[in-house]
Known about the structure:
Layout: E1 2-4, E2 8-16, E3 19-28, H1 30-40, E4 50-62, H2 64-75, E5 81-87, H3 90-102, E6 107-110, H4 113-125
Parallel strand pairs: 3-4, 4-5, 5-6
Antiparallel strand pairs: 1-2, 2-3
Helix pairs in contact: 1-2, 2-3
Amino acid sequence: MRLNTGRGTIHYWELAPRVYMTEVRGFLTQPMSQLIMKQAEPLYAIGGTVHGFHNWFAMDNYDSVCRVELTSWVLSHRDQSGLYIGVRSRMVAMGVAVANLALGSLIRVHNEPQALEEALSDVLQHGA
């Protein structure tokens, strides 16, 4: 699934029954964060841990409402969530750090694409 808001683009994929991935380029807007929640929400009904991989290396910035809504949504699924986020932008990294405080360090932050790919490979190989 793909959404282009004019300020940015998001791609969303389901890679396994409880594993999804997003890639954001440009600016994360509220319709994009709502797409993540709408698409990933049914995965939690399957049971077990849902692993979300977010390739946000090309994300420049975001609407602050996105961080608030996504953090609140993840908190409602905290016991079933594994989150892996790749970032380069200092603004995005700061927002992820703020969210991670609220989530009790649930997010595993990666600064290099290879590290995010290795984490994904590990989850796919050793069970999701």
